[in-house]
Amino acid sequence: MQQQTVEQTVAENKRSTVTDQLDPVQKPLVWLGAIVSLLLFIAIISVTTFTQGVLFLIGIAFGLVLLHARFGFTSAFRRLISVGNVQGLQAHMLMLAVATTLFAVILATGFSFTGTAPQGYVFPVGISVIAGSFMFGIGMQLGSGCASGTLYTVGGGKSSMVLTLFGFIAGSVLGAYHIGFWRETPTLPAISLAETTGFGYFGGWILQLLIFLGVYGITVKIAKKKNPPKMAPLKTTTGLKKIWRGAWPLLLAAVILGILNALTLATRGNPWGITSAFALWGSKFIQMFGVDVASWTYWSGDPAPLNKSVLADSTSVMNFGIILGAFIAASFQGNFKPGKIKPGIATASILGGALMGYGARLAFGCNIGAYFGGIASFSLHGWVWMIMALVGTYLALFLRPMFGMKNPNPKDSIC
User: Fold this and answer.
1) How far apart are CA 76 and CA 9, in angstroms?
2) In this structure, what are the phi and psi dihedrals at residue 281, rounded to the nearest 5 degrees?
């Protein structure tokens, strides 16, 4: 009886730790985020179009979901490779299944909210994709975040991720400068599992669902074999307050992210993307110092964005939305608390960001544009990206300790 009481007490203490010790709402920061978001929304629709404003709002929604669920791509790959925890990858498969289903309908019917014909991210598979996604896999483990992770953790107040973002932008510019060389390397044509194969979108949808189920089945076997530690619970609460104060279930976030990506496709005509904006920001910056970036192969096809406001770039406004959405969410949770950065972490953040930026340009996108958007668009290059990023993650686990970074421990709960 006494043993039972002790176990109950321990369980209650754990629940108390998760539910009762929430940090106070940072009300001034919540108001700051709301006011800045409103002003930026007004500026966007004044300078460009209402559609751009809608995309900004979708970006805010992405930021809210990503932060509330701490939805990770980097951490999911790291947990899988290091200790066999499959929770993150299983959430990815659900997210991709939802997005693929909605993408199939949108792409097959040409459905659009704005009249812009929807086009998925279907790109060639070649040396550049293989090399770029491998680099990205290493970079996101050193930088402690992927493209979406970098933006939402910057908004959430993680100081080191600001350095990752700067490295990301620099690497994106360098990748854009070198893209002419990489486009000359051997490559296969763009392959769509729906159109190129002749299956059509219904057949391609069935094929991809079977692949998702296959991957899910593999993760179940991995979990049974390795019996990995579970992800540590996040601080949360109960009732309606959980919507703005607590942690959101990972699988719920996966469904919402899939829906939001489909909304993006139907609104702007392309899936969600992130890193092309980094190349634009960096290119516009160095252009101010007389660098003729318009002559680069990367910009020669469409140099117009270099001479327009960044508010006219849909990816940029969505990125701004992600940062602000995460900032508002973190402020509601009382978690916006930037801290000091250790030298080793700072070095890894810059290096990791640079590798991600460079790799994303080579691989036609990042974990969002290539992995999420590519697979949801039925592109073979999205699957190649996933495999090579996992290989890069494996190598990065040996590099992280050199910068004072810890890998998940099989004996402990993991974050």
Assistant:
1) 32
2) -60, -45
Q: Quote the CA–CA distance of 380 and 362 in Å, as a whole number.
A: 16
Residue whose structure tokens are 């020669």: 300
Dist CA 332 CA 281 (whole Å): 30
Q: Give dist(CA 357, CA 363) in Å, integer.
A: 10
Residue at token pair 């979990």: 223
DSSP secondary structure, 327-341, as one string:
HHHHHHHT-------
Closest CA to 149 of 252, 50, 77: 77
- Which residue in 249, 286, 250, 258 sits closest to 375, CA to CA? 258
**Phi and psi at residue 190, in whole multiples of 5°?**
-65, 135
130: left (phi over 0), alpha (psi -120 to 50) or beta: alpha
175 φ/ψ angles, rounded to the nearest 5 degrees: -65, -40
How large is the average pLDDT for residues 42-65? 98
Does residue 283 contact residue 293 with C-beta atoms inside 8 Å?
Answer: yes
Q: Closest by alpha carbon to 371, among 389, 357, 358?
A: 389
Q: Kindly report the length of the chain.
A: 415
Q: What is the pLDDT of residues 153-196, one digit of tens each?
A: 999 999 999 999 999 999 999 999 999 999 999 999 999 999 99
Amino acid, single-letter form, for residue 350: I
Residue 251 CA to residue 253 CA, distance in Å, equals 5
H or E element, residue 125 = strand 124-126
DSSP 407: P
- Taking 3-state DSSP, the helix, strand and coil percentages for the chain, each rounded to the nearest 5, stand at 70, 5, 25
- Residues 89-122: tens digit of each pLDDT: 999 999 999 999 999 999 999 999 999 999 999 9
* CA end-to-end span of the chain: 34
